[in-house]
Amino acid sequence: MKTLLVYYSRTGNTLKIANTISESIECDMEEIVEKDKRKGIIGYLKSGYQASRGKVEHIEDSKYELSNYDLLIVGTPVWAGKMSVPVRTYLNKNMNKIPLLACFCTCNASGIEKTIEDIGNYVNTTPLASFGVKSSDIKDGSYKNMVDKFALEVI
Description:
Layout: E1 3-7, H1 13-24, E2 28-31, H2 40-52, E3 71-79, E4 82-83, H3 85-93, E5 100-107, H4 112-123, E6 130-134, H5 135-140, H6 143-154
Parallel strand pairs: 1-2, 1-3, 3-5, 5-6
Antiparallel strand pairs: 3-4
């Protein structure tokens, strides 16, 4: 199955999980790049506000054509119990091309289930596989077992 993994990472946690997944399965991987930056406390507050409102923003064009893939894996941080604005924007731009879908999210403490539900509702499909990782799982390395289980579900 030809797979594309796209992700947005503000702090690096989602990137770490995306890299681990791409090491486990054969896939192309692409970062969703915003044209606006979200640094510091202002960026943090703006992110939560926009996510709670279901906003879309400007992102750079993708280098991969999604219609060439059988599976899309989406990685997002949790923002106010929702997917990040850049991920919502990517899905919005590619709504008619989304093949099978799997997803993962990262968070500090809570919102995993709501975020996965947000993604599924937005694209009107139930993800083939999904999981969420807390910051504490990243620090202690326990996320690796979650990635292994996810990889088996999507290959």
